[in-house]
Amino acid sequence: MSVLLAIGTRKGLWLATSDDRRTWSLDGPHLLPDEVAAVGIDTRRDPVRILAGVQSSHWGPTVLRTDDLGASWQETEQGAIRFPEDTGAALARVWQLQPDTDRRPGVVWAGCEPTSLWRSDDGGETFELVRGLWDHPHRTEWMPGAGGAAVHTVLPDPASDRVVVAISAGGVYASADGATDWQPRNSGISAVFMPGPAPEFGQCVHKVAPDASGHETLYAQNHHGVYRSDDGAATWTSIAEGLPSDFGFPILTSPRASGTAWVVPITSQMVHVPPDGRLRVHRTRDGGRTWVEAEQGLPDRSWTTVLRDAACVDDADPTGVYIGTRDGCVYGSDDEGSTFSTIAAHLPDVLSLRAVTLA
Amino acid sequence: MSVTVRLPGALAPLADDARVVAIEVPAPADVSTVLDALELRWPALARRIRDETGAVRRHVNVYVDGDDVRSRSATSTPVPDGAVIDVLPAISGG
Questions:
Q1: B38 to chain A, minimum CA–CA distance in Å?
Q2: Residue A90's closest chain B neighbor by CA?
Q3: What is the ipTM of this complex?
């Protein structure tokens, strides 16, 4: 078994591989000097396909793909993601590339800016705008977060036609019919930047991840607030007690162990550094009732941030956990987040991480 | 009519490695006519210069015979026969 870790950064993409998750080989940079804010690895294909959401500050955004682990890259001639003329919109950035499951072979989802969801049926070569979300009456009221306004999380249910998305700053939306009709699902999630009680939508949900038991149980890292839902996002309950801060960007869940999740706390919405300058990963094994801090291998006196997609887990046993920082470091754990070691340093800001096991 | 488009090195690979390309367009032509012709031959190249709405990308500068089209009529800027069009990355893009 070997593990492939794709590291998307502000300037280029690196591909790290390891046979033991202790010693890593780093291949890169690829796609220099462009930003790679989204990476998806489609293991349903042989060979494995890596999809990259690429952004050039001059030449704009695009989706590139490689079927040979970065030896060559292909771009769809007419462009993989292009807004239809009637929308009057233009793609600004690809935020998320999410291969679907074996239930829907060939399907890949993309979350983009301006706030939009896209679906591919050909492995990410061409995408169609999901009109049900683009035409949603709430769309004109969704606001940008600090990083922009986008669909940043796409969670297709492997057991049904349900799809859950998270939007900055629109909140959580769910579709029960394969992305045609959408409803807000933010009951119980706070919006500290709005006056009055929490609204039906408009929350700045940073990341959502499904429990290993299935998509009836979900976890959310919010703009202040960490939550769990046990009813498919219909309602949310706080699980932040025990954390040094309820602010952060990523949230990860184990693909194997129900109730296991990880967060990376940040001091506050105004102070984006780790609490007391200590970069730590916190793990729960009981659905958020209790949390344990991991410090071995993680730096003290660290003033960096881990962005929402700069964290991932792999599908090995035990689960590997990976975080990437804005100061260009990547840390990995082969023991489900109990201890960490440095995989890479001195990279540009890490924006996206994805890890898979390769046969 | 014939116009010449000069490309920066970063875009040449998308035009069969050509830094200078000759384009035939019907008269009268404007910048969008020339970009349409580029798109027919090299869609990925044209996509680097303008977005889906037809607007030149924010950090891309296009000049017609040395005049920045942003100071004129953007993509509606007329392009005369024999014009030289320069596409350059703006320093505002980093």
A1: 13
A2: B52
A3: 0.93
